[in-house]
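Re: export button greyed out
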Amino acid sequence: MVKMSTFVNKCFVLGGKVQRVYMSKIFREKFEFSNNGQLLSTNLRTAEKLEIPNCPKPTFIENLKGLVCWDKAQRLHEFVDEQHRIMGPIFRMHIGAVTAIFVNSPEAYQRIFKFEGPTPQNFVPEAWTLYNEMRKCPRGLLFMSGEEWLNNRRILNKLFLKPWTAKDLMIDCCEKAAMSLCNEWKQFADAGNTVPDLEQRLYLWSIKVIVSTLMGTTWDRHEDELTSDLNILAENLHEVFIQSAKLSVLPTKLAVKFQLPVWRKFTRVMDTSTNVARKLVLRIGKVSNNGLLDLMRDSAIQDEYLVRIITDLIIAAGDTTAYSTQWALYLLATHAEVQERIFNISMSNTSQDIIDHSYMKGVFRESLRLYPTAPFLMRSLPLDSIIEGYSIAKGELMIMSLYSSGRDNDNFPQANEFSPQRWTRDSKNKYENVINPLGTLPFAAGARSCIGRKLAEAQMTLAISQLIKTFRITCDNAENIKMILHLISVPSEPVKLRLMTRN
Ligand code: HEM
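Workaround output, generated via the alternate export path:
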C-alpha cells in the first residue's frame, strides 16, 4: 500500500491524464462496486487509504489576503483551472472556511449527477438564504428542497422541457422580442455610436421575454404600461448580482451582524426586486389569458406556489440570459466569418428551423462552453460514493469546474477557439471536432438542471439571428475584455459593440 501511494503521488506530479488512466486501472483490478456505483464496505477500508490530492492549506495570512483581495476572487475560475492542470481531475481545496472537492472530468460529472439522488440540494449564495430567513419570504423553485421541490418541478418540466408544452408560445415571444431589440438598436447604428448601456438593455430584453411569455398575446396591449416597472426590475436585479458578488467574498453573517453598507444595499435592491416582481406577477395574472402563466394556472401547481414560482422565474431568467447573450455577441463581434454563416442561415430559414439548425446550435453551445454563466456547479451526494476512483463521504461538497473542462483540449481540440462548426455532425452522427460533449454543461444536468434552458436557447438564437440579419457587429475594446466572476461570469469592462446596418 505504501508503494502504491508513492506511485500515485508521482502520478499527480506527472499530471491529471496519467493519474486518471492509472487510477481507473487500479480500481478495476482492486475494487468492486455495487450496481449503483457505491464502494462495497470491504473495499472501503482499502480505498480510504488513497488520499484525494490536497491543495496546500492556505496560511492565516493567505486566507486574509484572499478575503480582502477582490481581484483574486474574481479570477477563481482561472486559479482552479491551473490547479487541475497541475494536480489532475480531482483535488481537495480549502477556500476560507470551506473545504471542497473540485473535479473537472466529464466522467466525474456523470457520476455526480447519477448519484445525486431524487431530490438533489443545490447551493445558493449565503446572502440570499440569509435574506429569505430575515424577511421570512417563501421563494420559488431555486430555493425549494425535498418533496416540495420535486412536486413543483415535475409539473414545470412538462411545460418547460418535456414535452415542452409551451414551445410555440415561447418561440413567438422570442421572435417578437428579437425584432423589437433590433428596431431599438437601429438608432445606434444610424448615429455611428456603440450600443450604450449594453448590459442594462440586454437585461430589460431578457425580462421582457419571460414576462411576455407569461402573458401571451395580452403582452402587446400592456407592454407600454408595464415598461416602467420592468425598467426598475432590470436595474435592481442587476444590482442584486453585483452586491451578492461583493458579499460572496466576505463572511456574510458578519456583514449582517455589523450591518455593513454592502449588506444594507443588498437588502434594499433585493426588497425592491422581489416586491416589484411580485406586484408585476399579480398584475399580469389579472389580464393574461393565453400565456405561460395561464398554462401554469391550469396545471396542478397549487395557488400558494404560483406567485413565488413565477416571481423567481423572472429573477432567474433575467441575469443568466442577458450575460450569456452579451458573451455570444462579443464572440461574434470578433469572428466576422461566423456572422456571415449566421446571416446566410437566417435569410433562408423559419424561426423554428433556425433554432434547430446545427450551426446555430454550435454558436449557442460554443459561447456557453467558453463563457459558462455558472463556471462552477455544486452538489453534495446523499451516500458515500466513488468519484474518479476515490471514496467520497456523503455530504462532502463537490464542485464541478465547468470553465476548466470546457477549455480542456482533451474534450475540445483547440479548446480556446470559438468554432461553432465543431458541433456539426458527420455522416456517422459524430461531432466534427468534439471529443467529449459532457465537458460543457452550462445548464447543469440531472434532476436539478436549468428549467429555462429551452427558452434561453430560443431566446438567444433568435436574437442573434435577427441582429446579424440586420447588422454587421464589431467590438471597439475586444482586447481588453476578460472573464471575471461576479457570482456569475461577466466581462471585466463594459463591452463596446458597434453596429453597421447591412444593405
Ligand atoms: C443562458 C441562460 C441560462 C443559463 C446559463 C442558466 C443556467 C442555470 C444553471 C447552471 C442552473 C442549475 C444550477 C444547479 O444545478 O445548481 C439553473 C437553474 C435554474 N434556472 Fe437557469 N439558466 C439560464 C436561463 C434560465 C431561464 C430563461 C430561466 C427561466 C425561465 C431559468 C430558470 C432557472 C430555474 C428556476 C432554476 C432552478 C431549477 C431547480 O432548482 O429546479 N434559467 N440555470
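The chain is about 60% helix and 10% strand. The button fix ships in the next patch.
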